[in-house]
């Protein structure tokens, strides 16, 4: 899957509350975040997603793990990725895996 257009914007302080697409946690007003937007080839719609600072360093590895393709919700695939590749971070973000 590739994007016809893509934009990444790092936000120093959010003006409103957002939800991280990767962990599902709320990104509070005034928090740093990363916003991706674009249009995927052969798909009718545009996308916009936010990512919290805690998940952001893991996103490149995640997209490589899923070979650039992921169904909705991203948070479920992200949890599986962390459980497999980084169990310690999985427990930090999603809680105990028992």
Characterise the protein shown here.
The protein contains 3 helices and 5 strands. A 3-stranded antiparallel sheet has the order 1-4-5, with no helix packed on it. A two-stranded antiparallel ribbon has the order 2-3. A hairpin with a 5-residue loop joins strand 4 and strand 5. Helix 2 packs across helix 3. The longest helix is centred in the C-terminal third of the chain and has 12 residues.
Brief summary:
The protein is an alpha+beta fold and 98 residues long.
Task: Please give the structural blueprint.
Layout: E1 3-11, E2 18-19, E3 26-27, E4 33-40, E5 46-52, H1 59-65, H2 74-85, H3 87-94
Antiparallel strand pairs: 1-4, 2-3, 4-5
Radius of gyration: 14 Å
Question: Total number of helical segments?
Answer: 3
Structural class: alpha+beta
Biggest β-sheet, characterized?
3 strands, antiparallel
Strand count: 5
Low-pLDDT residue intervals, each spanning 5 or more residues = none
H and E string: EEEEEHHH
Mean pLDDT: 88
What would the keywords be for this entry?
single chain; 28% helix; three-stranded antiparallel beta sheet; 29% strand; alpha+beta; 98 residues; 3 helices
């Amino acid at each position: 899957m590739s994007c016809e257009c893509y934009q990444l914007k790092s936000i120093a302080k959010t003006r409103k509350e957002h939800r991280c697409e990767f962990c599902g946690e709320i990104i509070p007003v005034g928090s740093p975040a990363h916003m991706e937007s674009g249009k995927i080839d052969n798909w009718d719609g545009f996308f916009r997603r936010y990512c919290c600072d805690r998940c952001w360093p893991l996103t490149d590895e995640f997209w490589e793990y899923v070979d650039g393709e992921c169904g909705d919700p991203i948070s479920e695939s992200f949890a599986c990725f962390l459980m497999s590749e980084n169990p310690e971070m999985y427990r930090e973000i999603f809680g105990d895996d028992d």
